[in-house]
Amino acid sequence: MSASTYPSPLAGYENAPPLPDEKAEDGKSYVNPPADQLSEAYEKFTPPLDRGRQGGFDVHIYYFQSNAEQSKYAYELWQRIRREFPELRIYKFWDRPIGPHPVAMFEVNIFTPAQFGAFISWLAIWRGPLSALIHPNLVPKEGENPSAVAKKDHSERAIWMGERLPLDLSLFGQH
């Protein structure tokens, strides 16, 4: 996809003054101009992320079901997440591949930017030998194919922790 198909990230800032070239105290980063208020993205997910029932992000935590050590660790992690993050939606602990996922996994839904920040930073420390796919859930625009949107969410918009695993994207159909 070419860059011209994306809206400009500077929309709304067209008439802003030039950014300063001044370096911050660390000598490497730049001094940023002050903002009138914090970005809305601190409080709620940016559209078209799902702010409703599905949640803005899904996290799929993978383990090799034939590996006893990984299976044990994954099950313990699943239990820990349920205890420490009860406000998140935590799904079944699968002992086999399901859907487009090539190995066993469990899924967690995230509903707010605060939950995302807390859980993803926690997971970076606690995921151990496991891989995790973090993908957004975009609400399809009018006339947009929901399967095509879900396919992009799981591929082009995906964030990975650990080893990237190949998904069977054919399950999302053609668009």
TrEMBL record:
<dbReference type="InterPro" id="IPR014980">
    <property type="entry name" value="DOPA_dioxygen"/>
</dbReference>
<protein>
    <recommendedName>
        <fullName>Dopa 4,5-dioxygenase</fullName>
    </recommendedName>
</protein>
<feature type="region of interest" description="Disordered">
    <location>
        <begin position="1"/>
        <end position="34"/>
    </location>
</feature>
<dbReference type="Pfam" id="PF08883">
    <property type="entry name" value="DOPA_dioxygen"/>
</dbReference>
<dbReference type="InterPro" id="IPR023389">
    <property type="entry name" value="DOPA-like_sf"/>
</dbReference>
